[in-house]
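Risk register update: the risk of archive-format incompatibility is retired. Evidence:
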Amino acid sequence: MNTRDDWLALLRVPGMQPDIYHRLLEVFGTPDRVFAARPADLGQLGLNTVLVHAILDAPIAALDQDRNWLQQPDHHLITFNDARYPELLKAISTPPPLLFVRGDPDFLQLPQLAMVGSRNPTPSGRKTAHEFARYLSSAGITITSGLARGIDAASHQGALQGIGGTVALVAHGLDIVYPAAHRHLAADIADNGAIVSEHPIGTRPLKAYFPRRNRIISGLSLGTLVVEAALNSGSLITAKHALEQDREVFAIPGSIHNPLARGCHRLIRQGAKLVETASDILEELSALLPTDLQTRAGQVEENTHAQTLDPDHQKLLKCLAYDPLPIDELVDRSGFAAPEVASMLLILELEGYVVSESGRYTRVG
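Archived output:
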C-alpha cells in the first residue's frame, strides 16, 4: 500500500474511532507503522483482541471505493499530517484523522462562522439566517453549516451570494447527497466552497453520526451562531461543542411565544452573546480576522448604514411586531389606509425587512 492507502485502510478498520486512531498515531507515528506493529504492541495500548485482529487484517479491498472517488475532479483527501489540515480543527479534543473534500479545500483555511438552527424554522427564522449569512459572506467570512433542511440550507444559500462562500459538513460518505432534495444546493456549494466528511466513501447517514459531525462544524469555526432552536435541538449540541472548544457562541433571541426561540434563550442565559444584527457578530470577531477582512467588514458596514427607509416605511415597520400580524391590524396601528399598507409591505418584503405567510407579516429587520 502507498501512504494514502495506509491512512484510508486504518480509517476503515471495523471499530476504529477518532480517539483510537490518534492514540495509534501518537505511539507509532504513521499508519503504515501501525500495520507493521506486533499484536503484543497493540495490546499494550489497551485495545481489545477483536480490534487488534481487525487492524492486522486491514480491509484493503474496501479501498477501491475511496480510490475511485478520489480520481474524480475536485475530490480531495486531507490527512491529519497534511499541511492543508485546518489548524483550528486540530485544536479540538477529537479531530477527524482524515477529511474527504468535494470542492475547493482552500475554503477550510478561511475564517469561518458556523450557523445552525431548526430543520423546521419559521419564515422569519429562515429569512434571518439567509440575510445574516449573505451579509457575513459579503464581509469575507465563510459560513459553515450542516446541509440540513431549514436554517442550514438558508445559511448556505445566503453565503453563496457573498465572496466568503460556504462549507458544508455532512455525516456520511461524499458519494451521496443527504437530504437528496439538496442535490442542486450541494453542487453549488462544491462550486463555491467545499463539502466535507470524516467518513469514507459508501458510509450511509446513520443517526449516530450527526452529533459527531457537529463537533467538526464548530471546530472549523471562530464561533457558532444559533438562529432558531428548540430546547432539544441538535443545534444546542453544536453550541456545546463550541463552548468546550473555547469558541464564541452567539444566539438570536425571538418571541417568548415561539418554541423555536427557547433554545436560543437558554444559550443566552448560559452566557452566549445575544446578537440582533450581523454587524454585532463582525464586531465580536473583528480582532480574530485578518487585516484585509477587517477592512472589508468595515466597508460592508458603511454600505449597509447608507441604505435607509423613508419615514412612512419606518413608521409601519415600528408598528409591525416580531409575531405575525394581518394587514387589518397594521391598518389600525399605523393609521394608514389598507392600500397604502399593502403597498409598503410589498416594498418591505422585497427589501428583506418582513416576511409573509398565510396573509400575516413578520418583521425580520
